[in-house]
Fold this protein.
Amino acid sequence: MPALMQSSNRDRHEPTTLNTMVFADLVAKPPPDRELRVLDLGGVCQTTIDFFSAYQCHILATGLCDDFQVNKGLDKHSLQQLQKLIQQDIKRQHDRHYDLILCWDLFNYLDNKQLPMLVECLLPVLDGICRCHAFIYTTANRPVQPGSFQILSQDQMLVSSGDAEQHYNDTVTQTTLEKYLPNFKTLRTVLMRNGTQELSFMARS
């Protein structure tokens, strides 16, 4: 994961409310003739289930962010498990694509080896229909581990980061993502006041 420089004087983060205009765009128009298919890189979260219950929806929660927290990083076993879950889900649903992938803030914690490995796992389902949603931290100070996100509504989320803040000497940027996602394009990006960048991207046609 990106190298740490020093600990911040800040202790535990208070939950922060985020205005999620990009997410609202992505879920505003679900498929009219079939279920919305969602791949969630986070763990099972009741607020996520409750939110998408308003849609005709199939959602697969992979727990990858939880694995990252437990293992203090993203290892080969976690990625193999991710591939297995996706393959099993595709086989059960007889459909190789997802409409939406929820990446949360995971990209901020992957180094230049882990990020391409994750992208490789997702490539089989990253087709022209799929949209991806992510949060990027543009400031060097950020929580040590990925946050826990609760969907309050389509345009508002609550993020909790229980760990102390750290200063990182490098950060993931939109340019970094474009380097590892050369066949994808950014759909929309919004920079929030707290330095969090919300963005969506998809495969180039």
